[in-house]
Write a structure and sequence with these properties.
66% of the residues lie in helices and 0% in strands. With 160 residues, the chain is mainly α. The protein has one domain. The longest helix is centred in the last third of the chain and has 29 residues. The protein is extended.
């Protein structure tokens, strides 16, 4: 088996890092210009999209069960997202970075389990369930994350 030689790595002491740390004042200005988006903003958007989609489906098809199916699909995303948002905004969620990370993973698992449970219960809860309509409501509600980020409230600029 032939052996290959690898050139030694250059000394890292001679190179300066391209990443420069921010000063406290610069970090404060970055936080002011880019405030975090509330998870409740996303939940509100999902509720609005779910109701509108259900009404549109009911009006276009003339079948009430299609409207209920779309609404239930949106609810299968909305209810777990609300539980997730409540978990992330609780008082223990930001004690330190470790609890925040564990809390995020825990609430994400709860959200997935609740979504799956709601989908499994759908045939018993929605009379005349239309699975394609339910999936349309589910997908529309999931895509609201991106729309909610695009239309999130912007910070007020200070005129100085």
């Amino acid at each position: 088996m032939p052996t290959t030689r690898v050139a030694p790595l250059p000394d890292e002491d001679t190179q300066e890092s391209p990443v420069q740390p921010l000063s406290a004042d610069e970090a404060r200005r970055v936080r002011e210009l880019n405030p975090p988006v509330s998870p409740w903003w996303v939940v509100l958007g999902q509720a609005g999209v779910g109701v509108v989609a259900a009404l549109v489906a009911w009006l276009f098809t003339g079948r009430q069960n299609v409207g209920w199916s779309v609404l239930y699909g949106a609810l299968a995303v909305l209810v777990p997202a609300a539980v997730f948002a409540r978990g992330l905004t609780g008082r223990f969620a930001s004690l330190n970075a470790g609890t925040a990370a564990v809390g995020f993973l825990l609430w994400e698992m709860v959200k997935i389990a609740l979504t799956l449970a709601m989908l499994a219960m759908a045939p018993r809860l929605v009379a005349g369930l239309s699975w394609p309509a339910l999936l349309i409501g589910l997908i529309l509600a999931m895509k609201v994350y991106w729309v909610a980020l695009a239309f999130a409230p912007r910070p007020k600029t200070k005129s100085s």
